[in-house]
Design brief:
Elements: H1 53-64, H2 78-90, H3 101-115, H4 122-131
Helix pairs in contact: 1-3
Length: 132
């Protein structure tokens, strides 16, 4: 059987190693079940007064992103129109409070970006810094 040693000659076999410098993992998992959000399938362009799953999806996504929607209940009301207009302004889209195809695509992309796992590897970055 083989024996394993550190670069300094310390035996690792059966003992293990501990880091000289500890870097805590700062990743915070988002506790959001996106499977419950209906799909924005871009088959219509809802506006105030419309009811539907696409409206519900927009409300749920805007709520996750921090916009102040009432509900979400699937009813395109004045609050959704106001917050959708804010979102459109924030994203540099034509801001008129209609859930058009471009806005639906942008909402989907914004949700995906929000849910992405933090790709930053703080332990690796610190190791590279030390080795330089």
């Amino acid at each position: 059987t083989a024996e394993y040693f550190t670069a300094n000659g310390n035996k690792v076999e059966g003992i293990g190693i501990t880091p000289d410098i500890v870097i805590e993992d700062t990743f915070e998992e988002k506790d959001i079940d996106i499977s419950r959000i209906p799909e924005l399938d871009k088959y219509r362009k809802p506006s105030r007064g419309i009811v539907g799953l696409d409206v519900l999806a927009a409300e749920m996504i805007l709520d996750i992103l921090g916009y102040q929607v009432s509900g979400p209940d699937g009813i395109f009301d004045a609050a959704l129109e106001r917050e959708l207009t804010k979102y459109q302004e924030d994203m540099g889209l034509y801001s008129y409070g209609v859930l058009d195809f471009t806005t639906q695509e942008s909402l989907t992309q914004s949700l995906e970006n929000f849910m992405k796992i933090d790709d930053k590897d703080e332990q690796l970055e610190k190791a590279i810094e030390i080795l330089k």
